[in-house]
What does this fold into?
Amino acid sequence: MMKTVFVINGPNLNLLGKREPEVYGNMTLFGIEKALHQRAEALRIGIDFRQSNHEGELVDWLQEAGEKADGVILNAAAYTHTSVALHDAVRAVSVPVVEVHLSNVHARETFRRRSFIAPVAAGIISGFGAQSYLLALDALHAGQYSEQGANEAKA
It folds into this structure.
């Protein structure tokens, strides 16, 4: 049974609700955190919710999650498309990592369609706004993710 899920958020997500609401919606990051805590409480899962604009801090948190969590919900934001360091950190941890995005990245600019995280993630949820986080939590709780795909990529 899943006990603790780290929710790790990357750069500019602290601006949710203000930054491009037509793309990311009106909900703030605090609103997403509150909704996740409510769902997690019903599922009897602890949530450790974090945000940073700094790549190295995200790497540190992923490594910490590998020691302390049962799963990770990761919205690496812009680092999704650029960070080999985050790819390597996800690959190094032994817990399932679900990549999430508020917007449908495949319906946006071409450069957003490539994820350095996807090949080593247990799964990807994209395009459902704040609901993407709740879907990821439900998938982790139910064990509905691709261990095989993630483990093959990590091998």
